[in-house]
Design goal:
This protein has 201 residues and is of the alpha/beta class. It contains 6 helices and 7 strands. It has a 7-stranded mixed beta sheet with strand order 1-3-4-2-5-6-7, with helices on both faces. β6, α5 and β7 form a beta-alpha-beta unit.
Length: 201
């Protein structure tokens, strides 16, 4: 089923989070991992801004996904995507990094409608300790999460297989979905997992 996405709101603080309603899927990953590109590929439209400078997002951006047509969408969303700020960007100021837990931790730990965390890792670089820390946090918080390896179109088959094997081994993962926002590879495997969190599955 095709869902149409539209920007809902940007929340720099928990008091601005939308009222809990339908299932929400959070997208997390290091800065420059291709999070905005993947969101746009899933939406089939440019809804998330792709910044030329990693680490620019200072809030959680919410997108409502509606069934129906673009011209006549359903009145209420079927699903909500939450785009969380990237992490791990070396040039990001410490003051900004220190502010993130003020709204990211409450969202991940307390949000009642958060059904799934989609964690993005870059298939072109070795496993990163910051990603391991995120997975460990989500496990301790008992949050369901799915790991997606981005930019898989940049690697040839053998190199991609080696990269995926290393990522699974180092991060202790049983499953890893390789995707490409550019070629749309892997989106057909990812969408059913996302829809399974909503009433549309």
């Amino acid at each position: 089923m095709r869902l149409h996405a539209r920007f809902l709101l940007s929340a720099p603080d928990p008091e601005f989070f939308p009222a809990p309603s339908v299932a929400e899927i959070a997208f997390l990953g290091r800065s420059n991992v291709g999070k905005s590109s993947l969101l746009n590929a899933l939406a089939g439209a440019t809804v998330a801004r792709v910044s030329s400078t990693p680490g620019r997002t200072r809030a959680i951006n919410f997108f409502a996904l509606h069934s129906g047509t673009q011209a006549r969408p359903a009145a209420h969303p079927s699903l909500i995507f939450a785009d969380l700020p990237g992490y791990g960007y070396a040039k990001l100021s410490r003051s900004i990094s220190a502010e993130w837990p003020l709204f990211i931790n409450p969202y991940l730990a307390e949000r009642p409608t958060l059904a799934l965390c989609v964690c993005l890792v870059d298939s072109n670089i070795p496993p990163q300790p910051s990603d391991t820390q995120l997975f460990d946090y989500l496990r301790s918080a008992k949050r369901a999460f799915l790991v997606v390896a981005t930019k898989c179109d940049r690697l040839k088959s053998n190199a991609l297989n080696r990269s995926l094997t290393a990522l699974k081994r180092e991060h202790g993962l049983d499953e890893l979905i390789p995707v490409s926002a550019k070629t749309k590879h892997g989106l057909d495997a990812l969408w059913p997992r996302l829809l399974a969190t909503s009433s549309l599955a």
